[in-house]
Amino acid sequence: MTAISFYIxxxxxxxxxxxxxxxxxxxxxxxxxxxxxFFIAYFLKHETNTPEAGINPWEKFMTIQIENSIPFxxxxxxxxxxxxxxxxxxxxxxxxxxxxxxxxxWSIYFxxxxxxxxxxxxxxxxxxxxxxxxxxxxxxxxPDLAFxxxxxxxxxxxxxxxxxxxxxxxxxxxxxxxxxxxxxxxxPLGLGMFLAIIGIIVSQAPQSIYFPYSFSxxxxxxxxxxxxxxGVSSVTVxxxxxxxxxxVLGYIHIKKLNIK
Length: 260
What we know:
It comes from Winogradskyella thalassocola. Pfam families: ABC2_membrane_4. This protein is an all-alpha fold. The chain has one domain. It is 74% helix and 2% strand. A two-stranded antiparallel sheet has the order 1-2. Helix 3 runs parallel beside helix 6, helix 3 packs parallel to helix 7 and helix 6 crosses helix 10. It is globular.
């Protein structure tokens, strides 16, 4: 088999295993949670949320949701989904079995990493669709909210979510390495949650642009005020670098590790 064949085969196997786990349903549950909460808030207080004539209600509806949920929800979700996906293998001694097969370790490592990234991207997609659906439903139930009279600026909000995802790559790389390394589910989960909380707390400090667990918050909170590197958001640059470094170091570490 070629290198690409090994990788594709690993992806297929991981996808099949993912569909049979709680991690699969977590991507859906997490995606619709905040849109449901905002839907309820708008439904119960639609009079106070009725926009003035000529004002696009999608602007407030979508911006508030993204700015208030994504920075805090995504780091926690990444920590949880990564830990859950890897716990499947640790719990069933799956890694020991996989590493005993005549399959390159890199295809196993990066195949699982790809599935984690796929799960997170899927959650972003479901999240955006859930916001749109909740807005249209509100427009049908309460026409005075005017959701059916305007269209959301899709490119603007998709860009916000894309930047948020790229800014989260650093956390993904770190958490995947930790989750792959430690059999005990509590270690990567507890450490990740702790660092995610610290990231939120210190996000107001200028030095937070160097702390990966703050990147998700900064990608939304700073907006146009974000420092740039060669015209690109510094947070996204540092996040990509962190992801690449931790992914490579994680693979090198796992390659030399004696899985028992």
